[in-house]
UniProtKB/TrEMBL annotation:
This is Peptidase S24. It comes from Acidocella aquatica. Residues 8-116 form the Peptidase S24/S26A/S26B/S26C domain. It holds the Pfam family Peptidase_S24. It comes from the Bacteria.
């Protein structure tokens, strides 16, 4: 939907000089790339990182894992989202919940599936 400030009643808004064109989120987030996926967050384990239940993460399966990045990890059949850390020659996944120990991302049943590159919040 486009907003056209000229179709209002009353006086013209001074903000009308600064109107942008249409915002295409799919293009902005590069969702046409085959490696990019939207992932909806369940739970508030990453609230300390500003990620809340209901948020939509843009996960890129082609992005390499990096220390400190938020990632989607497959672990023993479960899909988890957390912050990556690399230490002791392996990857670890930490939630933002204080007192929760990081989980080693190791073994045949563990895979860093994608790195989070963006966030969409539909509720403010």
């Amino acid at each position: 939907m486009n907003y056209n400030g000229g179709n209002t009643t009353g006086f013209a808004s001074p903000a009308g000089d600064n109107l942008e064109g249409r915002i295409d989120l799919a293009a902005m987030l590069d969702l046409s790339r085959p490696s990019r996926y939207p992932v909806r967050v369940a739970g508030d384990a990453l609230a300390s990182r500003g990620i809340f239940a209901g948020d939509i993460l843009i996960a890129d399966a082609a992005s390499p894992p990096a220390h400190g990045k938020v990632a989607v990890v497959m672990l023993n059949g479960a899909v988890l989202v957390g912050q990556l850390a690399y230490r002791q020659q392996q990857w670890w996944l930490a939630s933002g919940v204080e007192g929760t120990a990081p989980i080693a991302v190791a073994g045949d049943d563990a895979e860093i599936w994608a790195v989070v590159t963006g966030l969409i919040r539909t509720q403010v």
